[in-house]
Amino acid sequence: MKMTPHIVDGTPVIEIVIENPLLKRTYPEKGAVIAVVDTGFEGFLLIPEDIFNYLGFDQLKTFKRNLILPNGEAIISEGFYGKITLTKIDQSLEGYIETVKNLTEIVIGIQAIKNLKLTLDYCTNTLTIQRCKSKE
User: Does the predicted model carry a pTM greater than 0.85?
Assistant: First the structure.
């Protein structure tokens, strides 16, 4: 089933595939998964612990960093560098993929989308994604 970027209950979502290139593991193995676009998250990709472990990131020497939630609470994430593919535009991106306790959704942040053009159209509940034109 081919999914396209769209808006669900007012929240923009993007279809992605997540990869641990070192261990050659992908999630999901077939198809794609939906990630919530969060422009308040300055990181690359935040995923639930079970997906993080499935990809084998927990078997590597991970890095920890502090995250500040919108309510001001500080939490510690654990992560490693990996790759995602935005299936709608066949664009692969590399960045820091991290997890935190009790996370239930996949969140894509500013570091992943900063070089893309995203257009939200709440009239039609669509999200259009394009690669940025090169600046020459």
Answer: yes
Using CA atoms, how far apart are residues 117 and 133, in angstroms rounded to an integer?
A: 9
Architecture of domain 6-131 in this structure: Beta Barrel (2.40)
Q: Which residues pair with 119 in a beta bridge?
A: 128
> Rounded to whole angstroms, how far apart are CA atoms 25 and 29?
8
pLDDT the model gives residue 131? 85
Ranges of each domain in the chain: 6-131
- Is residue 7 helix, strand or coil? strand
Q: What are phi and psi of 19, to 5 degrees?
A: -135, 140
Tokens of 110: 């500013």
CB atoms within 10 A of CB 108: 27
* Structural contact between residues 82 and 21, judged by C-beta atoms closer than 8 angstroms: yes
d(CA 102, CA 100): 7
Report how far residue 7's alpha carbon sits from residue 115's, in angstroms, rounded to the nearest whole number: 20
Residue 96: pLDDT band with limits 50, 70, 90: very high
Q: What is the DSSP string of 28-74?
A: SSSS-EEEEE-TT--SSEE--HHHHHHTTGGGS--EEEEEE-TTS-E
